[in-house]
Amino acid sequence: MENIKNKLIIAITGPSGAGKTTLVNNLSTRLNIAVPRHCTTRLQRKDDQEGAYRYLSHDEYAYFLKTGDFLISSGDGPEVKKEYGNFYGILKQDCSDSWNKNDIIVLFVSYKDIDALSQLRNDGFNIEIVALTFTNIEKGVKYRLTNDPLRNHTEKDINSRIRCALSDTEKYEKALQRYAKTIVYTDMLDIEGTYEKVCSDLGLRR
């Protein structure tokens, strides 16, 4: 990749409904921070923002992974196969293209990406991890997804996301405490409060 000495990656993570998309949109529109296209093997959703994703087949995704084209990549199983579920990643080239617009880029990441982000830091990347969460994971995820105006989540889907959020939080809590620049409990703040706290904690101009 190009010289990254003066570049910054803000990596936003957290459970379903914690406000990741809203925060990223605020950082992008209000501070002109670039958001690289993200890759996914899942199907396109009606509320996906135009141009936000590259929708790849599992074979296409596996090819990019094999050739080392991803900056980070994670998924639901040990191999990039349809039977293992969906996979998500960000291509190095998409990061470079975004850095041509701004020296700061912001990414959506999974808890599963924490170790990879830590390794990238060791490799010289300037990365700040922002973890959005709830004071009560189960109640927070259920409330946000039940009241999501953009998608009609089934009870089965909500319960599945709650289980995933609880499991991932327990598994990666120590890593988040160690590596995250800031952990924000979004059920204690409104949208503006979340944005202001993240900007303050990261030293971003507002």
- From the coordinates shown, what is the CATH architecture? 3-Layer(aba) Sandwich
The number of distinct structural domains comes to: 1
| DSSP summary, beta strand count | 8
Structural class: alpha/beta
What do these coordinates show?
The protein is globular. With 206 residues, it is an alpha/beta fold. It has one domain (8-202): P-loop containing nucleotide triphosphate hydrolases (Rossmann fold). The model has no long low-confidence stretch (mean pLDDT 92). It has helices at residues 20-31, 58-66, 92-99, 114-122, 137-146, 155-179, 191-202, and strands at 8-13, 38-40, 53-55, 70-75, 87-91, 104-108, 127-133, 180-185.
Give the key terms:
206 residues, alpha/beta, Rossmann fold, 4-stranded mixed β-sheet, 8 strands, globular
Secondary structure layout:
Layout: E1 8-13, H1 20-31, E2 38-40, E3 53-55, H2 58-66, E4 70-75, E5 87-91, H3 92-99, E6 104-108, H4 114-122, E7 127-133, H5 137-146, H6 155-179, E8 180-185, H7 191-202
Parallel strand pairs: 1-6, 1-7, 2-3, 7-8
Antiparallel strand pairs: 2-5, 4-5
